[in-house]
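Researcher: I'm comparing several assemblies side by side, and this is the next one on my list. It has 554 residues spread over two chains. Same procedure as the others: predict the full complex and return the structure.
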Amino acid sequence: MLQVLAKEFSSFLNSLIAYVVIGVFLTGIGLLMWVFPETSVLDYGYADMDTLFSLGPYVFIFLIPAITMRSFAEEKKAGTMELLMTKPLSDWDVILGKFLATFCLVLIALVPTILYYTSVYSLGNPAGNVDTAGITGSYIGLCLLGGVFCSVGIFASSITPNQIVAFIVAAFLCFILFTGFESLATLNVWSANALMIKQLGIEYHYESLSKGLVDSRDILYFISVIFLLLSATKLILGSRQW
Amino acid sequence: MSLQIRNLTKVYGQQYAVNNISFEVAAGEIVGFLGPNGAGKSTTMKIATCYLPPTEGEVYVGGHNVVDNAMEAKRITGYLPEHNPLYLDMYVHEYLGFIGKLYGLSGNTLRQQVGEMVERCGLTREQNKKIETLSKGYRQRVGLAQALIHNPKVLILDEPTSGLDPNQLVEIRKLIKDISRDKTVIFSTHIMQEVQALCNRVVVINRGNIVADDTVEHLLQTQQSNVVVIAEFEKDVTAEQLQQLPEVISVQSLDTFKFKVVAAQGVDIRPALFRFAADNNLSLIGLKQEESSLENIFHSLTAQSPVEHNQN
């Protein structure tokens, strides 16, 4: 698994993928947080990083599928799937290797935003007048959300050899998982179960983590979704043996 | 370490890609796997390397069942797939290192093996280039290098010499011959000289069925049935005229006055052709009996229709 992880990550660095993704993400978030008046912290006047945490997931919805769309689709198109599957590698080795490589890239993209935290911290009046616990919880939520989106992307890439289809399916699934359930819960048909439907979606647990209390139910939710999607990917990969 | 294929069948819908074939490659043997395109060679190899599951039957690689003990089977197998898939964005060294690590090589051993493979496959000058910048022949060599890097006991090569120029062909054949001293090797090819140069045995497959499984010498001795003579006249001869001669089975026109005359086994049609030319006052400018060759045997074993309708 480690070899696959190393190889995938090297290929991100060898091509423009890593640099473009990190660059676009940081540029976009940076502009939104510090430059544009509607969303800028400086114009808002309050020392918090809501912009990053509310807009970050939407940027992830189109960036993460872009990283993951080639993970299995390209292997199938190029025929290197045959190469991988005839080496002494288990399916889980390959899936976890690819997932972790993508996840590491997302985490590396997030690391420079800690600079934003230190900036807001020092800009506060007095310095340090910032909800650190809330921000920590939000970071944990954002990282786990990134993880879920990566697993969605890996799954979408495994169901088709066409990268564009993989991208669209991944982006759509990410969107549904993130905000879809909130919207579904507002339907009158099942208003009695509205809370349960909301809890199926990422946004509920993400908001919950943002409050600053790291609840194990929320962590477990994210880990379960990741596990579910990667298991589905294993099922798809294993179907060639049926 | 041997390769055993027992009653292997692979069905796609209604089509039998491989139909109940059985053969064995003993340790230390080099077997040529011959067959027309679409005969089932690649399918058989994909099953033997655990990529596809068999519909029925079993394959044992070094004693390991490819379905039940896939991991162990994969560890001792070196495989060069048909279209030689490679990670084009990796460098040659990087790629060979990656493959070596997958097989559990590390540290000094890995570095040594990579270096040795680069040298033996003639990649010394190309070793620091990206694979996408290499020509087909060099990519083929990289494919071969990754199949050999972990010193596998069983080598399964699907058309290892496809795309190589005549010089490279000789080198790669020599490499396969050297490498395979203590290994079990099966490789598929369309080039008869390769089979005669490298193989102890030949397995011929046609439309999913094995039509021959024999040593090369034995096959040459027993299979060739018809006698083929190439006769060339200066002018004024038609195929129909030659067809009239006794003991002529078929006549195929190769050129305006050049014909391929087929007679039964043991019959020397050349005197009859000479007398025919003399009787009709024709100039016979060429008369050659074709040696019994593996190519002809291949044709007769795998042709879909009689010789005279072949377009080659």
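Model: For your comparison table: The interface with chain B takes residues 3, 6-7, 10-11, 14-15, 78-83, 85-90, 240-242 of chain A (CB under 8 Å).
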